[in-house]
Amino acid sequence: MTPAPVYIKPDYRGADKLRGKVALISGGDSGIGRAVAVHFAREGADVGIVYLDEHQDAQETVRLIEAEGRKGFMIAGDVGDPAFAEQAVTQVVGQLGGLNVLVNNAAEQHPQQEATEVTPEQVEKTFRTNIFGYFNLVRAALPHLRNGDSIVNTASVTAYKGEPKLLDYSSTKGAIVAYTRSLSQNLVEKGIRVNAVAPGPIWTPLIPATFPPEEVAKFGKDVPMGRVGQPAEVATCFVFLASDDASYLTGQVLHPNGGSVVNG
């Protein structure tokens, strides 16, 4: 990608906000997931990442985690498969010694110009990754999470503003917001916090991989700040929500979106 995404700012200083914690991040091989992994590591966490099949990208993420002096672990598979979700959590717990933070972040999108082009097969595929995968990992992770632990889900500005070419993707992101709010109420008595981050236009590999060059060239220029955001500008929201700094927040959504005004 040109320019390369910024995964962590050179002057970012960790403050041990996640010291001694273990995190599992789905979609951790690149983009926002990689940025969150590196920030978590700089804040003192050991990090396991789940990814589909981007092996070189995943290896680079683990290298960046280990460069921060923390343990990294990667496992490839489809989070839409409940059996794999169970396996992923079991392996991360076994390799890293526990689980304190689950970040549901894996996603796919398939732009279509016309609503009639969104096939039932595409809808099912997108939902299986983008929201079924969240259910699967949460179900597998909950036996390991304790009072004070947290879950952070990746939603999107499209859940609030819509996106005409991403009907199924936007719908899954709306579902994630509702899931976050409902799950937070379900788990509040157990002391497990559940929040979400709803990024706006962020410069990740998903953008040039799914949009034509003419749309990539203007990506992010329609927000009030007039530019695309970097993964590093989103990852700090995840650090905050995963840490004790957010001890009085659950069922909430943060909006790093370049100034777009959203409701909800």
Note the main attributes of this structure.
9 helices; Rossmann fold; alpha/beta; globular; 264 residues; 7-stranded parallel β-sheet
Describe the structure.
By secondary structure, the protein is of the alpha/beta class. It has one domain: NAD(P)-binding Rossmann-like Domain (Rossmann fold, 3-Layer(aba) Sandwich). The chain has 9 helices and 7 strands; from the N terminus they run E-H-E-H-E-H-E-H-E-H-H-E-H-H-H-E. Strands 3-2-1-4-5-6-7 form a 7-stranded parallel beta sheet, sandwiched between helices. Helix 1 links the parallel strand 1 and strand 2. Helix 3 packs parallel to helix 4. The longest helix is centred in the middle third of the chain and has 22 residues. It is globular and about 45 Å long. It starts with 21 loop residues before the first strand and ends in a 10-residue tail after the last strand. The model has no long low-confidence stretch (mean pLDDT 95).
Rounded to the nearest angstrom, the radius of gyration is 17 Å
Count the E strands. Answer: 7
Number of helices: 9
Question: Shape, please?
Answer: globular
Instruction: Return residue spans where pLDDT drops below 50 for at least 5 consecutive residues.
Output: none
Strand content is 5-15%
How many separate domains?
Answer: 1
Going across the biggest sheet, name each strand in turn.
3-2-1-4-5-6-7
The CATH architecture assignment turns out to be: 3-Layer(aba) Sandwich
Structural class: alpha/beta
Give a short summary of the structure.
It contains 9 helices and 7 strands, in the order E-H-E-H-E-H-E-H-E-H-H-E-H-H-H-E.
